[in-house]
Amino acid sequence: MLVQSAKATLAATGAWLLATLVLRLPQPFLAPYAAVFLVEATVYRSLRGWVQQVGSVATGVLLAALAGQLIPWQAVALAVVVFAGLLAGSWWRFGESGVWVGVTGMLVVSYGTAAEPVLLGDRLLETALGAAIGVAVNTLIFPPLYGERLVTAAGRLATALADLLEATSDLVRHDEPDGVDSLLSRTNDVRSQVLAAEDAAGLTREGRRLNLRRGRPGAGARHERPLRTLIALWSPLSQLVAAVRTTSERQEHPFAYPWPDARDALADLMHCLAGAVQSVAAVGEPVELDGCRALLHRLEQRLVTAEDDGVPARLGLGAMILPARLLVEKLEDR
């Protein structure tokens, strides 16, 4: 944030000096304004914003010029330009810059330059100049990368997933009623961490587009795949937690808890999965899954041979084995 603020200051100052001292434009207020707004969070956004910004400002200036030629009363011209500019700015191709169609037109009419073609040309020139300087500064001087966000997001998500698996393991092993509320709280925490991880991954990918520093370690390419794996674990884990909550909250439900030996094996499997999930976030470290595979195989064999143990218990065990297998498969495909 400090670097981007310094860059925006540099861009605004440079745009103002170039417009006043070199081009000698009168009242070049749009140059530093455009420069500041084009120092975006990513290089790609700056380049896209340059097109949108210049387009929206040019449209606002043209609207003001048209109103200045056709409407002799400044107040009426101002109202017409603002109304028409806000409508035109809602076009989706203008993006977030669309609001400046009406605002730019309002500024031009307010300054009384709407009827002077030379000054209108100056407005367009200074806007394009300021926007170009903003893009250049953001592209050439420490173009922003967000690889460190992937590292942070992966670490936090791995910890949240592992904690949820450990809490689920304890609930399965000990069947404590108070553990259900804790499980729900941890589930909500994981959901929020998944959303944060998806945002970090999207921003990091966008940050590398058209970025001169995209090949550097700080670009986060090494951590992108582990983070995708962790995000993919959320769906089967949420299914597993839902099955456990159902069996623990409603004992009269057909999905009853499985037999004691199977419950212990399930708890051990979840504990083993928690350790594997933590290893995913450590890039370059091996993820040990042999223990998880052995426990999963043991549980599946228990389900196949449990013909005389009753339908409710078999259903309960099956409901937990399926998402557990999906978790193992996601970890194997990392």
Automatic annotation (TrEMBL):
Keyword line: Membrane, Transmembrane, Transmembrane helix
Nuclease as UniProt keyword: no
Membrane topology: Multi-pass membrane protein
Residue spans crossing the bilayer: 50-68, 75-92, 98-120
Integral membrane bound transporter domain segment(s): 16-137
Source taxon at top rank: Bacteria
Matching InterPro entries: Memb_transporter_dom
Localization in the cell: Membrane
Major subcellular location class: membrane
GO cellular component: membrane
Protein name: Integral membrane bound transporter domain-containing protein
Organism: Amycolatopsis eburnea
Taxonomic lineage: Bacteria, Bacillati, Actinomycetota, Actinomycetes, Pseudonocardiales
